Amino acid sequence: MKIILVDGYNVIHASSSLRALLSKSVYKAQAKLVEMICSHCSLQNIKACIVFDAYRGEGAERKEEVSPLVSVVYTGKGKTADSFIESFIAKHRSNYSLIYVITSDLAEGMTVLDERIIPVSPKNFLKEVKTSLNFISKSYSPRAKPFVYHLISGDVLRRMREEKLSKDKRKS
């Protein structure tokens, strides 16, 4: 079994379109990245864990299963995505034949090198994801949105919408 571990903000910052969304709303950028990775993983039939730092934020770590193949982790206070990824690898290395680590942090890539752990730059990962999204939209319908909403649990969608509404109300 294979898994992709994604430092979410590293990937967002590697994409001009996701960075543009981030300047408008953290939640929109996160949701778009999750949407893209869900589509990629459903096409490739591979698991993924997207990790978002809450290094300076408040609260405890939380994990959400957004589809059968994709989970999202929001790290707890004082914990970075890199430290979560290192800990995950230490605990679960033997459960996977390959672990792809998507990060722009060279130090992270260096500490996790072994034959089953493959560091991938966010830019290269985005190229793979875009190839998957293009394949999905060309293969299934030229006008289809390359995302399968039925794979996301209703609870996660509801929470994402509530967070967006809450943030929008605070801006008003």
The profile of the biggest β sheet is: 6 strands, mixed
Overall pLDDT level: 83
Percent helix, as a range, is 40-55%
Text of the CATH class: Alpha Beta
Number of domains: 1
Helical element count? 7
CATH architecture: 3-Layer(aba) Sandwich
Task: Quote the distance from N terminus to C terminus.
Answer: 47 Å
Low-confidence stretches: none
**What structural class should be given to the helix and strand makeup?**
alpha/beta
Q: What would the principal axes of the Cα set say about the shape?
A: globular
CATH-derived topology? Rossmann fold
User: H/E order of the elements?
Assistant: EHHHEEEHEHEHH
Strand content: 15-25%
The radius of gyration over CA amounts to 16 Å
In the sheet with the most strands, the strands line up as: 3-4-2-1-5-6
Number of strands: 6
